Amino acid sequence: MRERWPDRVGRPVPRAAWAADLVLWAALTGVLAAELAGVRAAPTAETAVMALLLAVAFGVRRKRPLTALGLTVGAGVLHSAAVAVGMVDVFTPTYVLPSVVLAFLAGRRDGSAAPVVVLTATAALTMLSALVAAWASDGDPRAALTGITDWAGGVLVLIAAVVAPWLLGRYHKRHAQWRTAGWEIAARMERARAGDAERARLRERSRIATEMHDSLGHDLALIAVRAAALEMTSGEEGTRAAASELRVAAHQATLRLREIIGVLRGEDGTPAAEPAAETAADVVARAVDAGMPVRLVREGPDPDPATPVGRAVHRVVQEALTNAARHAPGARVEVRIVREDGTTTVRVADTGGCGAGAAGNGSGLAGLRALVEGMGGAFEAGPDRCDGAAGGFTVTARIPETADAGGATAPAEEPAGEATETARHWNRMRDSARRRLAAALVVPSGLAVAVTALGFLTLWYAEANTVLPRADYDRLRVGADRTAVEQRLPRFDHRPGPIPGEPPAPPGADCRYYLAEGSGGRTPLYRLCFAGGVLVDKDVVARE
Asked: Please, are residues 27 and 72 in contact by the beta-carbon 8 Å criterion?
């Protein structure tokens, strides 16, 4: 679109963002032009150059934020160097304002610390080089030493105009991400709740389907068995016909039940519902009452139906008897339940012939396999033999006594005190924002203290080596050899310039000044004048 331009990460930049940059450029250029007009005789060329430089800086600051910052910092450093060597009389503070703005914006877009460190160090060394050049041309070692304080002041300006705003920009960016992370987490939680609701709906559908398959399917199979037995034993034609119709209706109802169960289950593989609290013996008794020839063999007590093992045994027996009644009617069935060595083994075998129990879609056996194996057990289902001899279908399940419900239970809740991934992400963002805030406060303050201490230490050293003690001054005699006198003098001399009211110096004499006290300010000075290699005059000069 016409109102958008691509930024450094490929996203379009709205026209409002460009308008904001234009406003910033106009404001900074206007302030600089106003100050230059007050301190320069002809500021037009300098103003035009700075306006063009700022335009370039704001034009590239989205794609190359550190390049834009380097342009403005370089302009400020060159301006300070021009002041140091005497090319410009007055330093213009507004040269610093663009660096403050662009440093903050750079911190918001680029958090790399190395380029900023290199830029700041380069600017500091450039200012130091300019000052060294100025001091070398002057030839005053004390002025060069005390000039370190001027350089320290320039470094403080760099810290305040570049380092501190950049660190604040980094903190602002991370703090904004922290705030945004809250909304992202809320959206993620809403999606998770929607997913949980969908999974709960599918689990409920699966529960209903399993309940229908296990309970209604089993009951319909027993109804069909009773109807078949009545059809075979009744001597009346009408009764046999009614029993046959009942058997066919039960079979058709079973087929429709399968279709409904298939729709309810869909593609969901969640575990089945828990059966009623009855033992495997109760299931066998109901089958026997319905006319099925079932024999129950137990070795050891029945598993508790309230436990996962008891419920699994109940399901295996019920499903196996349902399959036998449905696919091998009239066949003899043996149910064997053995509990030993911490394992419950269930074996249901019929004599219905090769592959009789394998008919149908196999969804019940597949559900049993998933249940038993999910509890850490083993499951087998298939014909005994298919060699023409009497055979049948056998279902065998081995379930460890220590097994829980496996996949049949809801996932365990996370232990108390252990943070979730969302909480860990939130804490990381918060801690990162706090660290950046601490860095934005501590780093500039620490650098400022270190640079200020260096400046004051240098100033103290220069002043301490410019003081001429009163006793040494009194021992100096006019006419003494200059070499002998200089051995008693401090390392540096003080060059205050012309002092109003000081006595005239002897003609052709070279005069030096030394502090009488180490308190600076307007304290008296000792003036020593040399000519012809000897001390020709000594005076105490008072400064008002």
From this structure: no
What string of H, E and C letters represents the secondary structure of 295-324?
EEEEECCCCCCCCHHHHHHHHHHHHHHHHH
Instruction: Report the SS3 class of residue 502.
Output: coil
Are residues 282 and 316 in contact, defined by beta-carbon separation less than 8 angstroms? no
pLDDT in tens, 292-309: 888 888 888 778 888 888
Number of C-beta neighbours around residue 200 at 10 A = 12
What is each CA distance from 79 to 69, 466, 523, in whole angstroms?
Answer: 16, 32, 34
pLDDT tens per residue, range 159-185: 888 888 888 888 888 777 777 766 666
**3-state secondary structure (DSSP) of residue 539:** strand
The separation between the first and the last C-alpha atoms of the chain, rounded to the nearest angstrom, is 72
- C-alpha span between 230 and 219 (Å, rounded): 16
Positive or negative CA dihedral for 177, 178, 182, 188? positive
Q: State the alpha helices, DSSP H only, in 42-96.
A: 44-60, 65-84
Q: Count CB neighbours of 91 within 10 A.
A: 16
